[in-house]
Each structure stands twice: as structure tokens, then as C-alpha cells.
Amino acid sequence: MILVTGGAGFIGSNFVLDWLRQSTEGVVNVDKLTYAGNLQNLASLQDDPLHVFSRSDICDRATIDRLLQEHKPRAIVHFAAESHVDRSILGPEEFVRTNIIGTFTLLEAARAYWQGLDAAAKATFRFLHVSTDEVYGSLGMKDPAFTESHPYQPNSPYSASKASSDHLVRSYFHTYGLPVLTTNCSNNYGPFQFPEKLIPLIIANALAGKPLPVYGDGLNVRDWLYVSDHCSAIRRVLEAGRLGETYNVGGNSEKPNIEIVRQVCGLLDDLRPDAGGPRERLITYVKDRPGHDRRYAIDAGRIGSELGWQPAETFESGIRRTVAWYLDNQDWVAAVQSGAYREWLERNYSNRAPGSLN
Ligand code: NAD
Ligand code: DAU
Fold first, then answer.
1. Beta strands at 254-256 and 221-226: parallel, antiparallel or unpaired
2. Which of 41, 50, 246, 309 holds its CA 20 to 30 A away from the CA of 206?
3. Is 113 part of any domain?
């Protein structure tokens, strides 16, 4: 078995679904089910004996110890985190708790469990930590892309908490010999992404005829990767990654935000024309995100040359699949647009006067 944390969230649920499509090895899925965790993502696994779900907090050491002893996983794949930058700006405490203390608690539990394994199981055990390119900070437009040796310069409470967790993971390798691996990935998109993040938010608002909020001048650049390609990278690193190493993962798809928004509008106009006219009319420039990183770009050379991983989707194919998925799954979106979701929209967007560029 493998133990996955955060497997009811966006990337975690895609990972669990992909894993069980390709493997007969079971998954213990440990998720607290915060606002971002959704068991509907895993509905197709309801009768699958290879999927065991535990609603648990990674900060709860006793429960993590019990789950490890009960299921004896050969690997831990750690996704659980608070993941939204804007939420970290309005409420950083939960990010420190889950991303730093939670990762620390998991590392301590993993260390105790690993030390108690027999020699053969000890040698093959892995702890894979799923992290982000945001730990490297912001690039200028002409700077080379982030390599694994780029200095850590996090600029938001979210990225600082992830940077901290990366350092803890690294230290457990060097200090205790725990067999760890870390991946640092760029922006994911695809099915089951909570509609607080740029692409699903734009799709949801565009379908509802609401303003499409673009922060600042819309020229911040991100590298975009279709979620199943992130999952295949994680599987490959788990299989063959060098212990203690970090691997950057990206989609060779750098784009300014405004281009993403325009592309989503164009696809929606093709697939679901709006009587009111092209949806670009809804684009609204709003006050920028404080500390907004200007550009991220990933050099995925190491994972390509060492492990032979490449993304399968281009941005064009991935975004088309994503928009089609959201059109086909509007019930899923409606179900997550709860009272709490609406309160979040109000908190995040009410003080961003339209037209203001900073
Ligand atoms: P998400 O917010 O969609 O899901 C996070 C999941 O973790 C949710 O199911 C939530 O219930 C669970 N969780 C939160 N706190 C928990 C706790 N204390 N105990 C147990 N479970 C808890 O996040 P995501 O976008 O799927 O990201 C998953 C991981 O990948 C994160 O570590 C994130 O930093 C990293 N990452 C995300 C992206 C991206 O573009 N989304 C890119 C690179 C790396
Ligand atoms: O780079 C990897 C990171 O990508 C992950 O570690 C994070 O978990 C994930 O949330 C994502 O972070 P970003 O901040 O880049 O993603 P987000 O979708 O929030 O924003 C993408 C870009 O779009 C960013 O430049 C901010 C901008 N934006 C976002 C929202 C929500 C807007 O212009 N308007 C919006 O309403």
C-alpha cells in the first residue's frame, strides 16, 4: 500500500484516481476534508476495496501513527496543504499549522515508523513531498527558468510555509537518513480544481456572466501543467528518483494571465456561445495581489534527462479538456459553491475596486 495525504483535494484526488487506474496497489487516503477537500472527487472509488479513506488531520500524530501501523505503507506521498496564495494573505495561520507543523508531524511519524521496519522494507520505503515552484520567488522577464539549485526566496505566507516544509523534509534526509524525495511543480489545472484558482474561477464566472477579475496588469506569467502530467511525474520520481533529491516539474508553457483568460473565453464562446456576445467583454482589471510574483518558469531538465519524464499534454490540449470537463460537470461546481465559498469571494474581491491597477 501507499499512504497519500490530501487525496481529496485537486491534485491528490487526480493522483489517487490515476494510481488506481494503473495499479493494483492500494491507497490509504488521509485527508482532513477542509473546504478544499471533496469526497465527490472520489465517488467512482466508493466500492473499490483498494481505496481506504480516513478523515484525519496530518497534525494529529497519534492518528498518523495508528494509520501507519495498521496499513504498513511502503511509501507516503504528501499532498495535504493549504494551497491558495490569496487565502494565505488574508489568514496565514492555518498555512503555518498545516504546511509546516503538519509536515513536521508527518515526518516525525514517518521517521519512527521507518526506523521500526525490517531491513528490506526500510531500504525501499519512500517519503515523497509534493511542493511548488513558488518557493523560488519571482523571476524577471529575461531571467533563466528555475533550476533545482535556484535560491529559495518565497514572497507569500503560502510559499514561505511550503519553503519551510521543503527545508524540514531535506533535513530529515541529511540528519536521520529518512529516504525522502521532493518535487517542485508549476501551476496545475484540470478536473476537480476548486474554483478559487484562476482557471476554474474564470470558467465559473464566465458561465455565470460575472466579471472576470484579472489582478494588476494581467501580465504576470505562470508555467501551466495539466494535472495528470503532474501525477505521472510524481509516480516516476517515486519509482526512480534519487534519494534526498529535488525535481522541478513543469509544462514548458509560460503564459501571461490575460492570455489564459482570453483563451478560456474563446473556448467557452466556441463550445457554449453566449447570447450577450464574446465573453472577453467580462474581463475586469482589479487591484493587484500584494507581493504578487511577476513570473515563474520551470527548467524541468533534471526530471527529463534523469528519469525520462515529459508532459503528455500541451497547454492547448489540456485547456480544451479542462473547459470541456467543467462544462460537463457543472453540478460539481454548483456543489462546492457553498455559503463558505461565497463568503470567500466576498472577502477576497470586495476590496479590489475594478479598474484599479495596484
Ligand atoms: P487543494 O487545496 O486542492 O487540496 C489540499 C487537500 O489537503 C484538501 O483535500 C484538504 O482537505 C487537505 N488538507 C488540508 N489541510 C489538511 C490537514 N491539516 N490534514 C489533512 N488534510 C488536509 O491543493 P492542491 O492544489 O491539490 O495542492 C496539493 C499539493 O500540491 C499542495 O501541497 C500544494 O502546495 C502542491 N502544489 C500545488 C500546485 C497547484 O497548482 N495547485 C502546484 C504545485 C504544487
Ligand atoms: O506555481 C504553483 C502554485 O500555483 C501552487 O503552489 C499553488 O498552490 C497554486 O494555487 C498556484 O498559485 P498561483 O497563485 O499562481 O495560482 P492562482 O490560480 O491563484 O493565480 C494564478 C495567477 O492568476 C496569479 O498570477 C494570480 C492571478 N489571478 C488569480 C485569481 C484567483 C488573477 O488575476 N485573478 C484571480 O481572480
1. antiparallel
2. 41
3. yes
| Per-residue confidence (pLDDT) for residue 358, from 0 to 100 | 39
The CA 297 to ligand 2 mean position distance, Å, reads: 14
Return the best residue to mutate from 198, 220, 253 for the ligand 2 pocket (most ligand atoms within 8 A of CB). 198
Per-residue pLDDT, 356: 45
Q: What's the pLDDT at 354?
A: 66
Residues with pLDDT less than 70, the chain: 354-358
Question: In which region does residue 213 sit, left (phi positive, over 0), alpha (psi from -120 to 50) or beta (all else)?
Answer: beta
Per-residue b/e over 157-183, b at no fewer than 16 CB within 10 Å? bbbbbbbbbbebbbebbeeeebbbbbb
Q: What is the DSSP letter of 185?
A: E
Ligand 2 atom with minimal separation from the 159 CA: 6
**Domain count for the chain:** 1
Residue 103 sits in a domain whose CATH number is 3.40.50.720
Ligand closest in space to the Cα of 212? 2
Strand 246-249 with 212-215, pairing: unpaired
Give the catalytic positions in this structure: 133-134, 158
The strand pairing partners of 130, in sequence order, are 183
